[in-house]
Design a protein that fits this description.
Blueprint (H helix, E strand, L loop, with lengths): L1 H10 L3 H4 L5 E2 L3 H8 L3 E12 L2 E9 L10 E2 L2 E3 L6 H13 L6 E6 L3 E2 L4 E10 L12 E8 H5 L5 E7 L2 E8 L6 E2 H14 L4
Parallel strand pairs: 1-7, 2-8
Antiparallel strand pairs: 2-3, 2-5, 3-4, 3-9, 6-8, 7-8, 10-11, 11-12
Length: 202
């Protein structure tokens, strides 16, 4: 496990590995940016938890009462406040949403930005977390927490392109396999970029 952790840290700071990932955007990101007069800066934490039986990526199911992305799978995160870096914002939001102690997360790199259809410019911040880790979800923001095995992220056959109607339009998007939750949208696109950086080329 230690060698795998070192490999991930190395790849997230390797220009050649990072070049395999590119900025991504939702189909209607440009329209959302125009309607809002620009994109709002945001950050999410992409937490990799190093369980002895196998590493996994922590995800949340957003509460149904939220005004945006309600009921969708997401990483802990939100808007970047004045004076914050993306890293600080991601850690603060993770503390608020899932009770993650910022001291328990070792930041290891960032992925290319994702522009959302709701008008956000999202910086994904990848962090390494050693168990045991105590998490407590804020029920006002998070309906559930779950983990996607890192082995699934590294499997090139796992993600698939799908088509479905959303907000009155047919859209194409990435989706990741999970027994209970649909992992799609910005979260799926960020996971695709994470996989591109971490997988062996070829």
């Amino acid at each position: 496990m230690i060698s795998a952790q070192r490999d991930i840290v190395a790849r997230l700071s390797d220009p050649l590995a990072l070049a395999r990932a590119t900025p991504t955007m939702s189909d209607d990101a440009e329209a959302a940016a125009s309607a809002r007069g620009g994109l709002v800066a945001a950050a999410v934490l992409v937490p990799i938890i190093w369980h002895p039986a196998g590493a996994s990526v922590l995800l949340t199911l957003r509460a149904a009462r939220l005004s945006s992305h309600a009921g969708q799978v997401a990483f802990p995160g939100g808007r970047i406040e004045a004076g914050e870096t993306p890293e600080q914002a991601a850690l603060r939001e993770a503390a608020e949403e899932v009770g993650l102690d910022p001291a328990a997360a070792t930041l290891i790199g960032t992925l290319p930005e994702h522009l959302t259809g709701t008008g956000y410019r999202v910086t994904p911040v990848v962090a390494s977390i050693e168990p045991p880790v105590v998490l407590t979800a804020d029920p006002n923001e998070v309906a559930a927490m779950f983990e996607l095995p890192l082995a699934t992220v590294l499997d090139p056959l796992a993600p698939e392109r799908r088509r479905a109607e959303h907000r009155g339009r047919m859209r194409e998007f990435w989706a990741w396999p999970h027994d209970e939750h649909l992992i799609w949208g910005a979260t799926a696109a960020i996971l695709v970029n994470l996989a591109r950086v971490l997988r062996d080329p070829g």
